[in-house]
Amino acid sequence: MSYQHHYIDGTPIHFPLGKVVCVGRNYAEHAAELNNPIPSEPLLFIKPGSCTVPLNDSFAIPLDRGVVHYEAEIAVLIGKPLSKKPSIEEVRDAISGFAPALDLTLRDVQAKLKEKGLPWELSKSFDGAYVLAPFVAGDTYADLTDIAIRLTINGEVRQDGNSSAMLNPIIALIQHIAGHFSLQAGDVISTGTPAGVGPLVSGDSLEIALGGQESFASRVL
Ligand code: ZN
Question: What is the Cα–Cα distance from 152 to 164, expressed in whole angstroms?
Answer without folding.
Answer: 20
